[in-house]
Design goal:
With 290 residues, this protein is α/β, with parallel strands linked by helices. The chain is built from eleven helices and six strands. It folds into two domains: 222 residues, P-loop containing nucleotide triphosphate hydrolases (Rossmann fold, 3-Layer(aba) Sandwich), CATH 3.40.50; 51 residues, no CATH class. The longest helix is centred in the C-terminal third of the chain and has 27 residues.
Length: 290
């Protein structure tokens, strides 16, 4: 079974730096596992690794699509698996849990193909009525009644003979994978988030958001969303920055819970002074089958 290594964890935990260090030691190629970093022009706010920081290591799935387009978990699953099959030592680095699990486990997705005509057909139908119609076609479906977009999409899939209930996630690992989670103390994480945000602002994060807005591109991701509200006069800059910290902290908490419950990772202290050696030794043993 193909061996895959993944370095995961909250934002600002040092995944990128460690990933490059490990890649250099074992000759791995890095696959981006962050759902925002796939987009071109979303560089500073996503903390995307710059070419000058890569130290010659090959990185995949960075800057692969225009932010006006949609790159879904289905797309990531397909692209990541193709890369895993081709690379001798694939190393996934990122914090988007669903994307990473979709690549490694036997999740089954239907390629997104939204039909505007189909949506228009049901524009005046209530969520309750949509749900009733959906149950007729897909009695086993479990879905949030308040998520109208998902209801319509599920109804469209069922109408095409592809009921969503039969395309659910599965929990069988397709690869021999070592999942490494970089754990970070809450207080340290908070300080790192604040320092990083100030650095991002100094590097031109506001200009990055303004450039996107000038192209009528609104990014619903932490940092981009709040600074967009600042540029629209909804928040002051200090309010926007504080909201970014709060939302980043909340995301980090969710990420830890999700990874622990979903992927049973090896938890390692991100602040351990011997982190690189500890992780490298574990990976070398893993690759040897020990």
């Amino acid at each position: 079974m193909k061996k895959v290594i993944a370095i995961v964890g909250p934002t600002a935990s040092g995944k990128t730096k460690l990933g490059i260090e490990i890649a250099k030691k074992i000759g791995a190629e890095i696959i981006n596992g962050d759902s925002v970093q796939v987009y071109q022009g979303l560089d500073i706010g996503s903390a995307k690794v710059m070419p000058s920081e890569m130290e010659g290591m090959t990185h995949h799935l960075l800057d692969i699509c225009d932010p006006r387009t949609t790159y879904s978990v289905y797309n990531f699953q397909k692209d990541a698996r193709n890369l895993i099959d081709q690379i001798k030592y694939p190393l996934i680095v990122g914090g988007t849990g669903l994307y990473i699990k979709a690549a490694l486990y036997d999740y089954e997705f239907i390629e997104s193909s939204r039909s505007i005509d189909f949506e228009m057909k049901y524009q005046d139908v209530s969520n309750e009525s949509l749900y009733a119609l959906l149950l007729e076609k897909d009695p086993q479906i479990k879905i949030d009644l308040n998520n109208r977009r998902r209801l319509i999409r599920a109804l469209e899939q069922a109408s095409l003979g592809e009921p969503r209930s039969k395309k659910v996630k599965k929990d069988h690992m397709l690869y021999d994978a070592l999942i490494i989670y970089l754990d970070l103390d809450k207080k340290v994480l908070d300080e790192r988030l604040r320092v990083r945000l100030e650095k991002q602002i100094d590097l031109g994060f506001l200009d990055e958001v303004k450039k996107l807005k000038d192209q009528h591109i609104e990014i619903n991701a932490i940092g981009y969303r709040e600074l967009s509200q600042y540029l629209d006069g909804i928040l002051s800059l200090e309010e926007a920055k504080e909201q970014i910290i709060i939302h980043s902290r909340q995301l980090a908490k969710k990420q830890k819970t999700w990874f622990k419950n979903q992927m049973n990772p090896w938890m390692v202290d991100a602040l351990d002074e011997n982190l690189g050696d500890i992780v490298l030794n574990r990976i070398q043993s893993f690759l040897k089958g020990e």
